[in-house]
Design a protein that fits this description.
- The complex is a heterodimer of chains A (114) and B (114).
- Chain A has 114 residues and is mainly beta.
- Helix content of chain A is 0%, strand content 51%.
- In chain A, strands 2, 5, 6, 10, 11 and 12 form a six-stranded mixed beta sheet that branches. In chain A, strands 3-9-8-7 form a four-stranded antiparallel beta sheet, with no helix packed on it.
- In chain A, a hairpin with a 4-residue loop joins strand 8 and strand 9.
- Chain B has 114 residues and is mainly β.
- Chain B is 0% helix and 54% strand.
- The N and C termini of chain B lie far apart (37 Å).
- Classes of the chains: A mainly beta (114), B mainly beta (114).
Chain lengths: 114, 114
């Protein structure tokens, strides 16, 4: 069975500052994918960033980057230069072809203070 | 990517009635998922719906309560039957697209049962 753990139910950051959201996971699969999804208040969930487990290089998408530590089964999301529009609930997720479905963490609610 | 629409966007229903939620995708997809989410909470997977086969339900969810149809590769419905106030929630449809198990989500259906 796959598990995803987000230990921070809530986080806050000052506008323009950097924040890191934590995620740990467990899987017996060797080939898998990790995701961070963003769900703004009353708005649709969207994919923020994806990491393939076989890639050592950390994924980056503009102000969003990950710190993927495969041996430690850790997958954190760093948001640089935080903006008010980054305020949302962030979900870490683990997927692989064999499972046929992704496993989601409980989410972290991020507040951005002006 | 995929664009997903859901109908209705919200509804208020009486106890004991049933509501059918529609999910339409702009491209053909194999796997579709139905989730339930309390506002500000994590996602709970109800079932996986593949075209041409019976839906696979997660523990705690049964077909009599949540019948699902998947008549083709772009459409699915979820019915919430014999509703009670405990069924009040947001119901999300999602699809898996591409080689990386990425999921794209619909905007959700906010259901209130009185």
């Amino acid at each position: 069975a796959q598990t995803v753990t987000q230990s921070q139910p809530e986080m806050s950051v000052q506008e323009a500052e950097t924040v890191t959201l934590s995620c740990t996971y467990d899987t017996s699969e060797s080939d898998y994918y990790l995701f961070w999804y963003k769900q703004p208040p009353s708005r649709q969930m969207i994919l923020v960033i994806r990491q393939e487990a076989y890639k050592q290089q950390n994924a980056t998408e503009n102000r969003f980057s990950v710190n993927f530590q495969k041996a430690a089964k850790s997958f954190s999301l760093k948001i640089s230069d935080s903006q008010l529009g980054d305020a949302a609930m962030y979900f870490c997720a683990l997927g692989n072809t064999n499972a046929g479905k992704s496993t989601f963490g409980d989410g972290t609610t991020l507040t951005v203070k002006p | 990517s995929a664009v997903i629409s859901q109908k209705p966007s919200r509804d208020i229903c009486q106890r004991g009635t049933s509501l059918t939620i529609q999910c339409q995708v702009d491209s053909q997809v194999t796997m579709m998922f139905w989730y339930r989410q309390q506002p500000g909470q994590s996602l709970t997977l109800i079932a996986t719906a593949n075209q041409g086969s019976e839906a696979t339900y997660e523990s705690g969810f049964v077909i009599d309560k949540f019948p699902i149809s998947r008549p083709n590769l772009t459409f699915s419905t979820l019915t919430v039957s014999n509703m009670s106030p405990e069924d009040s929630s947001i119901y999300l449809c999602s699809v898996e697209v591409g080689s990386y198990n990425e999921q794209f989500f619909g905007p959700g259906t906010r259901l209130t049962v009185l």
